[in-house]
Amino acid sequence: MSEPYDLSSNETFEEVAAMFEQVFEGTSTECLPATELEPLREHITRLTEGHKIEWDEKSMGFLDARGSFEDGPSWIATPLVDSELAYLVALHEIGHIVLRLDSFEDATDSGQPVRLYANEAAVWEWALDNSMIAPSTDAAEKIAVFLLTDDPGEGRQEALQRVRARISDVRARLTST
Ligand SMILES: [Zn+2]
């Protein structure tokens, strides 16, 4: 499989930003037929209820998905779960809550929040371990882009490698019966 986002750890924000638009188009963002979608939606519902997470599902960009496990009941806000990628993003947000791992360090004096790449990798690993489907190539590429949407930082390249390895694992798990 080609690795179109196998970038160095120091490309500019502009270079990464140029990849953004690719996140919103592609087979993994297309609406799935109801028969494929229903089990995925039921899975997200089951997980959010099981972990007592309020799920705010609404029309929003993939990069705007978020959640919180501090200050009151845990919650996640995700795009409508109607596609492969939306399902994986919802799993990722649940993973943040279950593992209690933040995406960012508290803002520094410079005001620039620091992305916690090791946390992001661990949360994607959780999401992939719990996924009912093996990510398509298109979804795998977009997951890589999600890891590139902030300034290059410590651990980003390692996080990419961890997530790619786990995608291979989940493919092996779900295709060998
Ligand atoms: Zn995250």
How would you characterize the overall build of this protein?
- The protein is mainly alpha-helical and 177 residues long.
- The protein has one domain.
- The protein has seven helices and five strands, in the order H-H-H-E-E-E-H-E-E-H-H-H.
- Strands 1-3-2 form a three-stranded mixed sheet, with helices on one face.
- A hairpin with an 8-residue loop joins strand 4 (104-105) and strand 5 (114-115).
Reconstruct the topology from this structure.
Blueprint: H1 13-17, H2 20-23, H3 34-50, E1 54-58, E2 66-68, E3 75-79, H4 84-99, E4 104-105, E5 114-115, H5 117-130, H6 137-146, H7 156-175
Parallel strand pairs: 1-3
Antiparallel strand pairs: 2-3, 4-5
Helix pairs in contact: 3-4, 4-5, 5-7
The structure holds zinc ion.
Zinc ion is lined by residues 92, 96, 103, 120, 123.
Supply database-style keywords:
single chain, 177 residues, mainly alpha, 3-stranded mixed beta sheet, two-stranded antiparallel sheet, 7 helices, 5 strands, globular, disordered N terminus, binds zinc ion
Classify the helix fraction into a percent range: 40-55%
Widest sheet: strand order?
A: 1-3-2
Provide the gyration radius in Å.
Answer: 16 Å
Q: Could you give a short account of the major beta sheet?
A: 3 strands, mixed
* Total discrete domains: 1
Shape: globular
Which structural class should the secondary elements be placed in?
mainly alpha
| Number of discrete helical segments | 7
Can you tell me the residue ranges where pLDDT is under 50 for at least 5 consecutive residues?
1-9
Distance between the termini: 22 Å
Mean pLDDT: 86
Number of strands: 5
- What bound compounds does this protein have? zinc ion
> H/E element string?
HHHEEEHEEHHH
Beta fraction: 5-15%
